[in-house]
Amino acid sequence: xxxxxxDACIMCKYTDCVEVCPxxxxxxxxxxxxxxxxxxxxxxxxxxxxxxxxxxxxxEPGAEKWVExxxxxxxxxxxxxxxxxxxxxxxxxxxxxxxxxxxxxxxPGEGD
Length: 112
Hints:
Number of domains: 1
Oligomer: single chain
CATH architecture: 2-Layer Sandwich
Number of strands: 4
Shape: globular
Largest sheet: 2 strands, antiparallel
Strand content: 5-15%
CATH topology: Alpha-Beta Plaits
Radius of gyration: 12 Å
């Protein structure tokens, strides 16, 4: 099993999760994070750290597509291991639905 980051992270990009990850398996895009599924050790410490509940186990319904999404972008984006400030208008986007179609950027973030 692995954990995934879904579209609830888009336009928020809280990084509380990366600070607690013991294996540094988070990768940073321009406006969201992803988890490398082959590096995740299924410890689950990241899940409760996400204020928008964007981190889910891959056993949840609909998570299959997110495993591949996380794999694809974790292989393109830089690793992130330190907490950073969330995106400027994060609170405004926390509850918004359909963020993948509206706002997703394939561009990499800065990483550490």
